[in-house]
Give the backbone structure.
Amino acid sequence: MNAFPDFSNYGYQITRELGHNRAGGRVTYLATEINTKRSVAVKQFQFAQTGANWAQYQACEQEIQILRELDHPSIPRYLDSFPTASGFCMVQEYKDAPSLANSNRWKPAQIKQIAISVLEILKYLQNRVPPVIHRDLKPENILVDDRMNVSLVDFGFARIGGGEVAASSVVKGTLGFMPPEQMFNRQLTVASDLYSLGATLICLLIGINSTEIGSLMDDTGRINFKHRLPQLTPEFLDWLQKMVEPNFKHRYPSADAALNALIPLEVVQQRNKSKLALISVGLLTAIAAIFIPLLWKFVDLKPVITAEKLNTQTQVMLTDELESKKTRDVWSLKQKKKVYFSVSATNLPEGKYRSYCKVVNPEGLFAAQSQSYLKTTGDRLNTWCWYNFKQDDKPGNWQFQFYLGGQRVAQNSFKVLP
């Protein structure tokens, strides 16, 4: 017999412990839902054993309230809750992935991809009315599986809306990852989580544990990290520096702004190559053919449409000539021509959309990506993207992904031969 609690009366069978914070009276278990046999995560709050006060119980209720309102594939869904003899349990969707705190294996290009994924989650949270501020973003609360799918967990300190925190409130968060305004109970903004993400990325890039982030701080509280990362480009280091500026007014104003600034940046300095050559090899462009002018006056257009569930019909055609109508699903690295991805989408609400083209290599990493703004003609739009295979690209199964309004509306797989 094991020493796990028995939750069978509530419909759950504990399998193993996933993690714990004994001082805070929190233990997280992997469990099986008895009726459906699906795996779930059960977070147990043991108030009676830790002498917790009513405020901590209210914090659990607030976490549930926030999770009930969230619907994002990278945030584990709230499923259930029930009282126990010693406290309270909350049940969530289980994400089978380790946290960033459990691995130092990430390469700079992968870390950029993780940053993009987290920023897309934060963008979703910040676009809510009022916005949701996580307040405890750190390596332990970011999960990444072997396909580079990223999840953000633990909304126990999350707050709906910004503004000042009452002077009597207990500071919530993790030292080293809390921005100064959070540490001193000052005004919180959507830029507060950006600081925490920046500190997390610095830990990953340098290869230090989250407990060591304080060793990089000077007497003024500024994180000094650039001298530890000489292999990275100055542009990327400047982006990262802006993420962790002590004054929130000097950071990016939102996850959306930080995301737009990050996407085009090279991370690792390339030797013996000009910047122009790097762009011509690695750049992926998206152009709205026929009906989009090359330069827009954004003030003349309707607001960008964001949508979580577009009911669109999309076709993607891979060709070796832009005007060709002959599609293909096999490519060869020996070919010198570009591969084109011609996209046609119909049944769209009329307006302007932010789109992303992404090419994913056999390792599940973004080989290239770009964004552009596209405007419909009637209920449809047509666009195309291209990619030039690089010398170090590997054969295998590749993917092309196309996003509109924050939603992936098309995905095509194609085989790349040597």
